[in-house]
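The passage that follows is intended for readers who have already worked through the single-chain material. We present the inputs for a multi-component assembly, then the predicted structure in tokenized form, and finally a short commentary. You are encouraged to pause after the input and sketch how you expect the pieces to fit together before reading on.
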Amino acid sequence: MMPGGFMGGAKDRLLPVSVPFRFFGAAAFFHVLAWLTLLWGADDLPRFIGGPGPVLAALHLMTLGVLAMAAIGASYQLLPVATRQPLARVWMARLSFWLFAPGLLILALGMSGEADSALWPGAILACAGLLLFALLTGDNLRRAGSLPIVAAHGGAALVALLGTIAAGLLLIGDFSHGYLADHASVAVLHMGVAAFGFMGLLVFGYSLILVPMYLLSRSVPTRPGWLQLGLGVAAILLFAAGRLMALPLLDVFALLIGLAAAATYLVLMRAAWKSAMRRRQGLSFVLLRAGWAGMVLGLLAGLVLAAGIDIPNGPALFGWIVLVGWLLTFVTGILQRIMPFLASMHATGRGGKPVRVSDLTAELPLRIHAVGHGLAFVLVALGIVLDLNVLVQLGAVAGLAGALAFAAFAGVVIVQVYRLGPPS
Ligand code: HEM
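Having made your guess, compare it with the prediction:
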């Protein structure tokens, strides 16, 4: 059994407030930029099957800029608290940000097709930031004796991150040199390893500590946790083998095993919910649940496609459900809990009194975000299937409105944490 209340004595292991919050603030910024870029590339989205252009830029602003950025901020702050091991070097965490965030902006410019010469400088900077994150987090996880299951998920996710980076760099080189025999297959491999291996395994692992913590559940059983990891890793390895050996049939088996991993994960989340001392979870849990539905729907859509059944604009729809329906929904749901929660740990309030989490959040912008995000997901998905650009455009506008509201929420939290706590 894993302890749900792992935060005991956590204040001692808090990083300077500026470290995690620069990542969360940047995630909110890239979120807005991603929807804006998607609006720009809306006409290309339904038939998108890869290649440079605004859609590729928007995809990476969303995946690297929001999903990875939030995961990095959360890892830097929450892992030292959960593992009771301090981060080796705080300046390295800061440096990773200053490589990754500007690198990503330059990379996105290169990917948009507007400035090819920006591709390599952007990729090198962004990947250097990611590698520094992998080094710091790998070191922390290696010392995480008390949470072997979370450490194992994190370790596997970091290996997948290395694979993602390697494939991403290979693809960029191939744009100008054309050395890959099957560029499209490597792109699919890159997407699968990034979304399911890197982000998916991080979500699986961190959920084991974050979800029980927010629900105030007593425990989550450990054995199914190992099973979800084993199944998840097996699915990704099988999928990678299928790509590398040009055996697309293996995708079907990989997706079936992936569905079994997802089912095990949902059983664990249900166990946390059943032993919860706090059942009223508000909007963030609505988003987490919607994200879980997106995870299952995405895997099912992948299975239908892998079985050779035709869905109109199937590849774009599959990517949309996995990246936005599952991962972006889940990550924005978790972020809206993590940010006020960490802020309350930092903020001391006047007279040294503790500050309530509810004083550090902003409900209205979060409601606007949830509505905008939900609408955007449905409208764009319909636009992809019906091949109707106008629906994609409307969806991107709704997503943009939601992202602006989310940025307002993030702004409120950041201003409050600096107002109430000693800035560092
Ligand atoms: C969380 C990390 C990442 C995610 C989730 C991700 C996701 C994706 C997705 C969904 C695609 C479209 C796949 C397709 O064409 O079928 C893609 C393509 C691509 N990615 Fe990434 N990516 C990530 C990181 C990176 C990084 C770090 C780089 C650069 C080093 C990179 C470079 C590329 C390139 C060059 C393509 C274009 C492939 C093509 O020609 O279609 N990606 N990525």
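Commentary: The chain is about 75% helix and 0% strand. Residues 171 and 177 are 10 Å apart (CA to CA). How closely did your sketch match?
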